[in-house]
């Protein structure tokens, strides 16, 4: 274990173990090709632990976003969280492994304090998992015949699935749609509510409704999708006198999708 000389950090535990990973093992062959092909990070397949899906992310030349260039960086990422409530939070402790193929044991780096995985922070791990010089030293056994083996154990200690929230997603360069509904002989209408013919926009079927309230002779408009009305109170009002001479009314509906 003296070969691994990493800066001491609170909440981390380093050890040598004969026990292989319980939850996931990842063998990478032709490891040097990652750097040669300018692959900054390798993402493993998903694996399950503690009722959730996870994956390992290995930066073969260090995490450049963190300014790391002389160590391998390894992280644990929680995945497939789309179905969880917006306020979800998972606290977990985890241990990452690197196989010494010469001695058939594992260098392990463990986060014993635990980390909070949540929507705003899906990834935790170690920027300086192992020095590159040590990793590439053939006598150390971590990289043998251009092959290495990483592993992970994950233990969920706390779960929270409460809370409310929302996500706003803006559409860039949205397509504009316009539909005009022409109502002839408006002054002779007897119906208090009138629906337009259906029209298509943004791969959806819509229709417009027109409502004249007898109590105050004001107008209400709605634009609807999937038979669900969304009424909009307009400031515009048409008095009974105005209604007498208006023989047709054109309602223009514009939107983006």
Automatic annotation (TrEMBL):
Domain MATH residue range list: 21-154, 176-257
Region (Disordered): 1-21
PROSITE patterns: MATH (PS50144)
Superkingdom of the source species: Eukaryota
Protein name: RESTRICTED TEV MOVEMENT 3-like
Origin species: Olea europaea subsp. europaea
